[in-house]
């Protein structure tokens, strides 16, 4: 071979060029799909943060508030359409929402009726829990009926028998109702109700929970429904629960 000879340049095959073009098209399409999914997710979150059941069907609607909502501006809550507010007050035998009293007073100043919620703890005695509630929730004639929130808690591994739970719950209800001068509501979550069937064993008005669709559990029709736990309002930090009251005479869902 003569010195100075050059080798011919190797040409890229048509298959390689086609493969790279196909990859680029696939990446563009994947990016487009990802963008559409992000837009759809954002739209869903936007919708969920604002959706409430129709007012013409459920005229009486309100919020659930706890310490996670920070310093609540109750004028804004009232302007958002809340007719009432349930406030988490006590939890188990010792825990207290640190801003319950402040929220209760401020909500009433804004013309919003309030009621207290107690988170029932399966690991604590009913009498001790009732004492905690009575110590921190004053009796008021204008207060809404108290609510017993029934759900599982990662802090409490106990799972008592149904008979024991119903006995303890009856004791708790008797004591707080004597203090408040009115009967309570019970608010079991769907998993709790499936395991313990509280609504079959405790004769109380029920408040059930299911986002966006009327709840279909419980032994009898609900009186109140937490319809959306993702509502965002300008007057509160984070999300609030949005609730509706079943109008009298409404047919079962």
TrEMBL record:
What SUPFAM superfamilies does this protein map onto? (Trans)glycosidases
Q: Where are the transmembrane segments?
A: none
From its record, what is one biological process in GO terms?
Answer: cell wall macromolecule catabolic process
The protein's superkingdom reads: Bacteria
Q: Which GO terms describe its molecular function?
A: lysozyme activity
Question: Which Gene3D superfamilies does this entry report, sorted A to Z?
Answer: Glycosidases
> Would you identify the family this protein belongs to, as annotated?
Belongs to the glycosyl hydrolase 25 family.
Q: What is this protein called?
A: Lysozyme
What is the species listed in this Swiss-Prot or TrEMBL entry? Answer: Sphingopyxis panaciterrulae
């Amino acid at each position: 071979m003569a010195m100075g000879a050059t080798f011919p340049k190797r040409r890229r095959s048509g298959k390689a060029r086609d493969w790279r073009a196909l990859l680029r098209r696939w990446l563009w399409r994947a990016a487009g799909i990802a963008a559409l999914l992000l837009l759809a997710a954002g739209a869903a979150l936007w919708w969920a943060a604002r959706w409430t059941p129709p007012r013409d069907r459920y005229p009486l609607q309100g919020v659930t508030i706890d310490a996670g909502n920070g310093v609540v501006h109750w004028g804004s809550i009232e302007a958002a359409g809340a007719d009432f507010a349930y406030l988490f007050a006590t939890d188990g035998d010792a825990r207290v929402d640190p801003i319950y009293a402040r929220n209760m007073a401020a909500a009433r100043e804004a013309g919003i009726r309030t009621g207290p919620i107690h988170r029932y703890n399966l690991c604590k005695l009913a009498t001790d829990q009732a004492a905690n509630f009575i110590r921190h929730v004053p009796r008021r004639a204008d207060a809404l009926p108290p609510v017993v929130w029934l759900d599982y808690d990662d802090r409490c591994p106990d799972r008592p028998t149904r008979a024991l739970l119903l006995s303890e719950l009856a004791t708790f209800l008797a004591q707080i109702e004597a203090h408040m001068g009115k009967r309570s509501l019970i608010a079991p979550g769907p998993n709790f109700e499936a395991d313990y069937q509280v609504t079959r064993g405790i004769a109380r008005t029920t408040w059930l929970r299911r986002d966006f669709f009327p709840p279909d559990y419980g032994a009898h029709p609900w009186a109140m429904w937490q319809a959306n736990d993702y509502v965002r309002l300008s007057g509160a930090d984070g999300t609030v629960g949005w609730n509706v009251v079943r109008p009298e005479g409404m047919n079962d869902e």
